Amino acid sequence: MPECFELTKCAKDILRYFIQVESSSIEYFCQRKIGGTQDTGKTALDPVYEYPSKIWKECGQKITKPTIKSWCEKFEDMGILSSEEKRTDGVNSFHKTKHYSLNHDAATLKQILEIIVKNFDPFERLTILSSAYFDYFIDENLVREILFKKSVYIRDSYDILDVNWENIRSAWNIWVQDEEFNEERLVEEVRSEISWTEDNTGRHSHRPDRCLISPCASNCAIPIVTDTFYKTRRSDFVDRIKFGFTIESADRAIRGYPEILHSHREVIEMEKCILPILTLIKSSPSALRYFLSGEWHSFELKKEMVEDHEYASEFMKDMVSIAARDISITLQIPMNNIVDYVDFNHREWVLSPDGDVKPHIAYMFFSLKNGNTLSIDLKYSARQISKQFCFIPVDGHGTCSPGTRYEVKIPDEMDFKLKIWTTDSPLCIAPEDIKDKEKFMEWLSSDSAIPRHLVQMLSNRVQNMIRVYPSKDNPSDTFFKLLLEDLNRALRRPDLFEKSCFEGTDVDIDGYCKIFERLNKDPVKHGEVQSTVTYYNRELIEAIIPDLLYKPGELQPSQEAVMEYIHRTFD
Fold first, then answer.
1. Which of 133, 260, 447, 525 has the lowest tally of Cβ within 10 angstroms?
2. What is the DSSP string of 478-517?
3. Which neighbouring-strand residues pair with 350?
4. Which is nearest to 481 in space by CA: 202, 183, 115, 81?
């Protein structure tokens, strides 16, 4: 597309028309799916074809047919529209005309976005990007596709604890090739891992001195790939992994037990990389444009850093800066299925480890429609600033004297720290929601159908820790926090409700079956739907163990501390 390309008013109206028609088709598809109707009409992936005469009528006959045809041809040359020779309704069945449809690929999104940024004002951009066309196709798959093309990696670690317990015996032969399987030693190693995790405030990183694993297993860079590539080309995916050391056991383990990467994709990739990017591009047209078409390079995130909320990537810093500047112009964001609203300099109340409640101000605060929140801090380091700023006398002398004028020499690039973190929805289970930790651990470790089903939905690592946890009568706060993180991820899954597990209980099985059947049909997975899933899953667990869980909204000890602190501070 030419660098100085501009649209006429007629061209803008034609482009809006195609976006509106495609959006209406998508909205119809979503409503039909959720409603459960058996309509055999077109799906959201079917293109919507329009022809110049119909566009002329729909636009109020304000644009001439030759003009419409000319611009449709230009948009087709740009790759925005596709065309087919089709028979026109109400016309001689032997007569065919050229019909046009809006494309559904990433290249088309890039083209349209360039046109929108160059030809529409910021408020018009918001209106266009609020359409179902953009909301539907700007999703996790698009983010993965772009990151895959840019060769983005996340450095992670894994070991035998990430293997399902039933497969540990065979996996042992890969990691510990010279020894026969020794369950006592395995249990000892698991308990040692738990102890190390608790001493390191719940961090998921693996002990560097573990004798159970090979050195390379604790250091590998895993690429972000599309779901299709991961499922259909598993061998090629493993070939792209950058191992810290060339040892055969690491490669054999990944190929033989691919489930050890499941937690990485679901937790580290999704929560620490894809979700922040998706939040920014859903909220800012300029950030979306930079992500799709900007000149940014491949980068690598480190698991131990993003778990501490620290992001050293220049790309992530640029995305935050661009989004902040964009949102500050309109103080609005496009309507979308991920983000509800954005706030700047948002005050949050944080419960510190010592039990005190302290205020924290987040530079940007995103309220997500699934009930969670995403916060961003963008701060300069005082130590870095003192090194970067130097005062130089204007007269060129090296000594400072009263009355001398000074100027500040600022480098071209400023270093700053970026932190991104998420907070679970109030519907999720917090440590203070548990009335009795000991009884809760006892219930979770029992052989009953419901807790057994619930534990199976946790990561392999947490499952293995629960199996051999040394102090079930007195679980530490750190381990409990790690456990609840996984448990809350299970609460967000619509497949948590398993009819056979809840038979024989007081739960309204038929009622929940209808609820989750409808929720599972949502093709977009809207944030509101995810929040509803969490709500009903939490309700299910509360119905089974009412004596162990506070209900959302009940006054808990930590909430009392918050209220007491607020009254003490502001009254």
1. 447
2. HHHHHHHHHHHHHHT-GGG--HHHHTTSSS-HHHHHHHHH
3. 358
4. 202
The kind and range of the H/E element at 363 are: strand 357-368
Q: How does DSSP classify residue 394?
A: T
pLDDT of residue 567: 57
d(CA 197, CA 526): 35
Question: Domains of the chain: which residue ranges?
Answer: 9-136, 138-329, 431-570
CB atoms within 10 A of CB 215: 14
Chain segment 496-552, per-residue pLDDT in tens = 888 888 887 878 888 888 888 877 766 555 667 788 888 888 988 888 888 888 877
CA-nearest of 275, 5, 193 to 115 is 5
* Residues 82/137, Cβ–Cβ less than 8 Å: no
Threshold 0.85, pTM exceeds: no
DSSP state of 201: T
Spell out the residues 6+ positions from residue 386 whose beta carbon is closer than 8 angstroms to its own: none
Fold of 9-136: Arc Repressor Mutant, subunit A (1.10.10)
Select from 86, 19, 6, 94 the least CA-distant residue to 53. 86
Q: Beta strands of 289-416 (E only): which ranges?
A: 300-302, 310-311, 339-351, 357-368, 373-379, 390-393, 406-409
Question: Which strand (E) or helix (H) includes residue 393?
Answer: strand 390-393
